[in-house]
Every structure is written in structure tokens, then in C-alpha cells.
Amino acid sequence: MNYLDDQFILTAKQKQLLKKTTKLSDEFALRADHYDREGLFPFENFSRLKEEGYLKLTIPKNLGGDGASLYDFLLVQEKIAQGDAATALSLGWHLGLLMNLNETKKWESSTYERICQEVISGNKLINSAATEPNSGSPARGGKPETIAKKGENGWIITGKKIFTSLAPALDYFIVPATIEETGEIGDFLIPRTSNGLTIEETWDTLGMRGTRSDDLLLEQVKVPFDALVERKEKKERPTAQGWLLHIPACYSGVAIAARNEAVKFAKTYQPTSLPHPIMHVPEVRRKIADIDLKLTTARSLMYQIARKWDESKEERASLAYDLAIVKTSVTNMAVEVVDIAMRVVGGQSLFTSSALQRHYRDVRAGLHNPPSDDITYKLLADRAFRE
After folding, report:
1. 25-43 b/e (C-beta count within 10 Å ≥ 16 → b)
2. N or C: more exposed end of the chain, with fewer CB within 10 A?
3. Residue 311 near residue 322, CB atoms below 8 Å
């Protein structure tokens, strides 16, 4: 670990967690190029995460999990993303949802506890499948075209979801659907083993290829009545969701990886026109310093807000705007940092053998994860003019 890793460690326990995660991250880095080139889900990485007990990281201690704080969670996300961004983002959805469900108590406690026990004892994976081809991102308020109809013995669900991260590996899908009888929107917990549930392999993207965010097809899938785990309520103002900071933490990790590549290159690359490696060139030094300045500034904000979230549960509702600011600030910083790192390395950064070209492609995905920049700017402008 370098000083960028140590920079935000607060406790001895966090230091040990980061040391353990660093070993996994270094291992994942060796396979990252293969999964990216082939567009494969990183099953081997997830096998290692399961072996090391990471799937229960955010499950509360009283249910047998590790009870990690949001701050702890972000440290893990950043470090894993340094090795393989797609693995980090995928893991983040699973861990973040478990954290959010515990904090919001949206589900019946018996249902949540059952899923937690399945994660702990059987290493089950869970994620939401919310985005649809026509309605777009749920963050923009589109109503699901997926329909849930009441049958004699339960619900019958038909529809299509896209951007289903971890699709090849999930054991449970949380699926928002419009309830035909009432027009309400409900979340349904659907096991992978359900008849009529299939995955269509459509994920062929520029970046984050290993998330395998394929399409989920539901053709008259029958689930029991208690599969309806939540009825959605329309919110007048943004809801504070601290768990979503796993997104900027992932892209911050990508930026750190790019930065480290650039530093390593500058220490060793010596063109014939110079009597020393390019690390001694003033402009190269300025670029690296600029990278570290951007990283420290954005990460300080992210960890400050995470700490506020952990330490003051009563004030969490007031952090909705700060959380949006963090996401926009950090993901845009990450894009800038990777770009500067590639300028340091020059044309060699464009070779497919260079990890930088993968970081360049992966980091751009952060711009499209929720909330998008325009939503953040709208929220902030609305707040400013309400005063």
C-alpha cells in the first residue's frame, strides 16, 4: 500500500481490512485484462471474495455479518477497483443493497434476515434489476413496463430489464414492476431458479465489460404473494442513500490505479533525448502533482460525507444533496485523472497491453451511473432557489 491508501485510514481495524483487501486486489489485477478482453464475468474473483467472506461485509453483526460502516465499505470498494473495476462495481451493488435494506427497514424483517442467512451460509448474490429499454433509469422517474398480475396462488410477472449487473452470477433479482390491478409500483424478490426467467447475453460495451450487465427476461414468472417486498412511494425530494457512494468509490479506485501506472512509467521510462527518466521532467512532475491534488480533494469530500453518514443517523436525511455532489465530483475527477495519467505515459497508453486504456474505458461508465450530472445540478439549483 502507498500513502494514497493510508491517507484515509482512521482505525487499526480499517488498516487490517485494507491489507487483506489489497492482497485480493493485486490478485484481481492479474486477471483483469483477460476478463475485459473476453467480456467475461469474473467468476474466479467472486469465488475468492466468497472464500474470504466479503459477501457478508455489510450485513449487521447481530445477523452474523461483519457490520461494516459506510466508510469501511468505501475503503474496500476503492481498493478492489484498483485491481479490477468491474469486480468492484458488481460487488458494490450486492453489498450496498444489503446495507440499504438494513438501514431503511423497507422489507419485512423475516425476509431480510432470511436473505442475509442465505448470503452468509450459501454465499448468495443479490442485485436490483430496475432499468428498462423504454423507461430508462429509475432515477428519472419512468414507470416500469414490467407488469405484475395477481394470480390464484401468487404474482405473475412479465417484462424485460436491461443493465442487470452480475446477471450471470445472481441468485436473487429485485425487480420493480407495475401492479396491474392498482397501478402501483412494487419491488418483487425473484429467485434465479424461477420458471420463465432467462438471461439474454447482450452486454457488449466499451467499458465495465466484466459486470456482464445483460438483459433479464421475465415471461409469466410465477412467484408467491410474499415476493412483493416493497410498495414504492413517490418522493417529493431526493432521498439520502449513503450506500450509493460505492459508485464514486469504485471510480476513485480506477483513478488511483491509473495514477499508479503513470508514476511507475515515469520512474522507469528514459527516452534517448534525456539523461534521466521522465520523472525528473518538470511538466511530468506537475501533472503527477495535479493528479494527487485532484484525488486528495475529491476523496476528502467523499470520506467526510461517509463519516457524517456513519456518525449521525439523525442527520442522514439532510445529506441527500451532499451525496449527489460527491458522486458528481468524484466521477468527474476520476475521468480527468485517468486522462492526465495517459498524457504522462503518452502514446504507449493506447496499446491494448496497457492497463491505462482499460482504466480509460472503465472510468467513463461512472458518468452514467446514478445520479447523472444533470440531475445533481438540477437538485442543487432547485435547493438554491427555494431559499
Report:
1. beebeebbbebbeeebbbe
2. C
3. no
CA-CA distances (angstroms) from residue 111 to 117, 118, 124? 10, 11, 14
Asked if 224 and 190 count as a contact pair (C-beta separation under 8 A), the reply is no
pLDDT of residue 236: 62
Cell representation of residue 42:
469474473
Cβ(168)–Cβ(136) under 8 Å? no
Peptide bond into 42 cis (omega under 30): no
Backbone angles phi, psi at 163, to 5 degrees: 55, 45
Q: How far is CA 328 from CA 95, 103, 169, 249, 367, in A?
A: 21, 24, 29, 12, 8
Residue 57 DSSP symbol: T
Band of the pLDDT at 160, cuts 50, 70, 90? very high
Return the SS3 of 176. strand
How many angstroms separate the CA atoms of 321 and 387, rounded?
Answer: 15
Is residue 278 very low, low, confident or very high in pLDDT (cuts 50, 70, 90)?
A: very high
pLDDT value of residue 139: 67
- ∠ CA 291-293-294, nearest 5°, is 65
d(CA 332, CA 373): 9
Q: What angle do CA 242, 246, 251 make, to 5 degrees?
A: 135
The number of angstroms, rounded, from the C-alpha of 118 to the middle of its chain's C-alpha atoms is: 22
Rg (CA), the chain: 21
pLDDT tens per residue across span 168-215: 999 999 999 999 999 999 999 999 999 999 999 999 999 999 999 999
Helix axes 373-386, 320-345, angle to 10 degrees: 140
Which residues are within 8 A (CB) of 178 and not within 5 positions of it... i.e. 6 or more apart? 143, 144, 145, 146, 147, 148, 184, 185
Q: In this prediction, what percent of the chain has a pLDDT beyond 70?
A: 98
Q: Kindly tell me if the per-residue pLDDT of 140 is higher than 80.
A: no
- Burial label for 236, CB within 10 Å (0-12, 13-18, 19+), is exposed
